[in-house]
Structures are given as structure tokens and as C-alpha cells.
Amino acid sequence: MLIHDNAGRVTTLCLDLDTSKATQAVVDADAERLSTLLASCGLRYVEDFSPAGGRHLYVPLAEPIDGAEARELVAALARTAPSMDASPHQNPSTGCIRVPGALHKRGGHQQLITPLSSAYDILRRRNTAGDVDRLRRALAPELRRNRQEAALQAKTAAALRQPQDVSSPDSAPRLAGGSLRCAASRRRACSTRPAIARRRRRAWLS
Question: What's the pLDDT tens digit per position in 69-87?
Fold first, then answer.
């Protein structure tokens, strides 16, 4: 199932805990930690598991949010859960997730952990914008750290793209001085060769 709509908005936060990123014990611990965090913010979610041992937590939203905001929240949540794969939220055009009942590539199906009647109620009465705001406040340290790292990466990338200014005061004297020294050396060598040759001829004639 695609995560983003045609406008790039998200109506469900999809938290993907993957055994390809961590052991089963880590996946299970991450699921418990995220469950506690979501519940503390008043957020309700639907949970399933895969035949490979992975876990999905779906957080349905009453009001769609921009894809960039969803990516930021999921990336912050990933800081608290080492087994989380944040990539489904990274690409607005192709980001997708396997939902309950879907076939798994290793065989079998995604299976609900949340009772079906509760899952139906959660999907029908979705989480409010206020619930999402509480999650955002709870993730303030992680959000801040991600923004700081993104700003540092952007600054580094910009510095690498900027061409070196050979006319700067630091570089110009060295380059110019080196060129002038080489040119002067060549002139001295050329000017002394005829004189040496004349002295040798006079010595031979005498």
C-alpha cells in the first residue's frame, strides 16, 4: 500500500520494524518502547507482524499531514528504535508498506496483533492533530538533533561544491611567487649560457 496520496500527504504514520536491521529481540523491544511512547501521547495504533518476525505499527491520522512533516516524525522515532526502517516515508512517489493480510515475499501473510474489532475502531476514529502535537513535543530532542545534523550535512555539501578561489590572498602569492621564481630561474639560465660558451672558445683559442 502506498503511504502518500497524490498530493504527497500522509494519513497514516507507518512504523516498520525490520529483522534485517536488528535481531528479533531488538525488534520486539523496539515495538514495546514505541507502544509505550505512542500511548503516553494518547495515540492509538494498529499492530501486525510478518512471517520474518518484523513488526508494523500504523498510526492513523484524522487530518492528513505533509509528507515532509511525516518523514521528520518517523526519522525522530527511528532514533528511539534501532530496528526501524524509515525508508517507506522517504519517497513520496514509491514509499509503501505491506498491510495486514498482504502476502509476504518469504511466504505467508502479515498478521494482525491488534484484535480485529479494535483495529476497525482505531481506523474509524483516527488520532487528532492534538495527539500528533503531543508526539512532536515528546520527540523534541530527537527532532532537534536530526535538524542539526541535516544543517551540518548541507553546510558540508555546500563547501564541497564551492570551487577553490585561486585568487584568494592565501593562494595567490604562493602560485604567483612560484611562477615568478621559475621564470626568473629560466631567464638566468638562458642569460649565462652564451657567456660560458664565449669563455670556453677564448680558452681553446689561447
Answer: 999 999 999 999 999 999 9
